[in-house]
Amino acid sequence: MKNIKIYIMAMLVAFGATSCLDKHPEDAVLADRAILNIDQADEAVIGIYSSLMSSALYSGHLTLLPDLQSDFVYAVNGYTNTHGDIWRWDILPTNPEIEAVYGSLYEVIGNCNFFLDNAATLQGTLTNDDDIDYLERLRGEAYFARALSYSELIKLYCVDYKSDEDAKQQLGVVITDSYYGAKNITRSSLYDSYQFVIKDLNRAAELLALGDDYDAKIDGELYNAAQYFNEYTAYALLARISLYMRKWDDAIKYSTKLIDCGYYELSSTTTEYTSGISLYQYMWECDKATEIIWKVGFTSTNYGGSLGTIFWNYDFTSYYPDYVPALWVLELYASNDLRDDYFFYTVTTGHSHGLTWPLLYKYFGNADLFNEAQLLHKSMPKVFRLSEQYLIRAEAYCQKETPEYNKAAKDISALRLKRYDTSYGGGVTMNSENAMEIIEEERVKELYMEGFRLQDLKRWGKGFERKPQEQSIAHGSSLKVEADNPLFVWPIPQHELDAPGSQIQPNASNK
User: Fold this and answer.
1) Phi, psi of 24 (to 5 degrees)
2) Residues in CB range of 268: below 8 A, 6 or more apart
3) What pTM does this model have?
4) Cα(179)–Cα(343) distance, rounded to whole angstroms?
């Protein structure tokens, strides 16, 4: 690597009458500012990382909304109505948050396409071997970021992937591999959309291969290079989408690469990083851990959204949460499960009703950023963690044609050994009757409010029902959602459908 990248604030897409797929967005670098040397190439990739800091993406909407829309939290009396339409399932194609996620993902894709188009030209002008090698690595980063963005669009705006044949008949996303736009602004099939993502990820894995001298620890500090993409970031996403595509053997293959590579290790709730702070607690309080595969990196001067605001709204005097954890979630954790201690903290709120409830401490905020700049509720989104790979592999073992329940049980036990206190003796018994129930509950306990729940319910063909709890607002607390509700798939933003020349087909949720 030439230089450590320094993050800059992303510029957000301005929404108007034009499409997010227009080839020259307002903040784009146009042709007269083409990439002419390796330093400008590096700056372009810095811009890609920067665009992923958007509060519409992992540090905000993309992480929070899929879980908030589900059965994980309740809006409380006195809340500010932030994300209220999403929580109540009053989701229209003109919803600004749905538009922001869609537009911000295509902004990242546009940045990647701009770089890749220019990198192809720049490559022929380079003569220094180090520059040539470095450009190849930058290309790998761009391929990964593009694949990641398309995978999120597919997850949110497309139906569940049931089989290859079915996916060939289902709508995917608008695919463009050039900054200068798609020839026809129409949606590819779901099958072709995923094949495009897989192709990009295979390129990324090859170009981002780690050398033999790669070390998961830097200068004695916990692995902090996780804010940059590498080949294992590509494998992590390949494992995730293989699970979503019901490619069980592939999911096992790629998750095993992560689990066995030796670069990552599950963070223990009982092993101390420093006096009184466990490795797992340190991961959430300071965003550093050996199990983070990729995070969106923040500094005290360059950062994204505030994941914890809606759960705390701390004004340096009291707490005014908009949303509190569902009681059924809190009750899932065993008495010796230390995740309960690190994820939730019981306080008396400042609301007039004085509700006392466990609030989501997981996103209270990075202690270093607070101490340095008084930044409240800023947590670095940990988009890929090793624990998810154990859960992916366990589910794939159970879902394959000939299930391997013993192997799945070993993965669940390995995860719990790092999460429970020393009284946990290990050992999990899984069979055809209980395996998926165990996995589903473990995904709730481990990945709570990290953006997976809506997709999980869609993949499992499950609806849900909310039942009112203490001080939950009336409208939305008794919601019952069937598994076939079209709003499990977000509507395509209306301005995309109405843009001049658009041939984009709507979702059922658009109607």
Assistant:
1) -125, 75
2) 278, 279, 280, 418
3) 0.93
4) 42
